Amino acid sequence: MPPDLFLLLFFAAGALYVVNARQQRQRIALLGRALKPYQIERLMQTLIQGYLRAMGERDAGRRRQVLGALADTEAQLRGQFGRFVADFQRTPAALARASRLPLGLPWATQWLPAASFDMRRLLAIHGEGIARTLDNGADRSPRDRAYTVTAELLLMQHSCHWFCKSRSVASARVQRRHRTSYPQIVAALAPETRQAYLALVNGRAR
Question: Does the residue 185 lie in any domain?
């Protein structure tokens, strides 16, 4: 490879990296501003830790007691996430797009709009899924309900990382933090959430 061409490619790659990093910081700031009035992350951690503690209880009565103590946290999370979703719906459409490509690339949503999805709709799907699972209309056992709510919350966290960075980074983070793979989380969702989620992120949603 001629030296001049190598230098040109080197500087072009560096410029693309800088632009991509700047756009990622902008998305992080956008999502951070929307989340700032709420304690969603703290409530989510409290619930997941509480569910794990409850599932570790061998005595059924003690398990019900631990789960019952989480009812107020569940109600707070449901209410706050619903308000957050409503707030985020006011985000301009051009800023709410997320790329379906596995890796983050600059201007991906502009260059390849068909390979992107609307984060506003995705957060609405998460809000509906979390509320529906907490309501437990499917009459899941306490253990199964806790398991499914956990999956709904982890997927919502995955989506936030996907929006800010990329799908690959989001999957790596959820694996590292929770020792759970992205396919495992999707498989553990309530069927209604899984269907709506996959249709949107795979480009089948109308």
Answer: yes
CA distances from 50 to 127, 133, 147, 175 (A): 20, 16, 11, 20
Per the structure, the complete domain to which residue 141 belongs is given by: 9-201
> Using CA atoms, how far apart are residues 83 and 134, in angstroms rounded to an integer?
16
In a domain, residue 174? The reply is yes
Q: What is the identity of the amino acid at 2?
A: P
Q: What stretch of H or E contains 202?
A: none
On whether residue 168 sits in a domain, the answer given is: yes
Name beta bridge partners: 117: 98
Considering the domain boundaries, does residue 91 fall inside one?
A: yes
User: What residue has token string 């902008």?
Assistant: 26
Which amino acid is it at 200? L
10-residue mean pLDDT profile of the chain (206 residues): values are: 57 54 85 96 96 86 89 97 97 92 68 84 98 94 93 97 93 94 97 97 74
Structural domains of the chain, count: 1
Q: How many CB atoms lie within 10 A of CB 185?
A: 23
Cβ proximity of 159 and 130 under 8 Å: no
Q: Model pTM?
A: 0.89
**Rounded Cα distance, 29 and 34, in Å:** 9
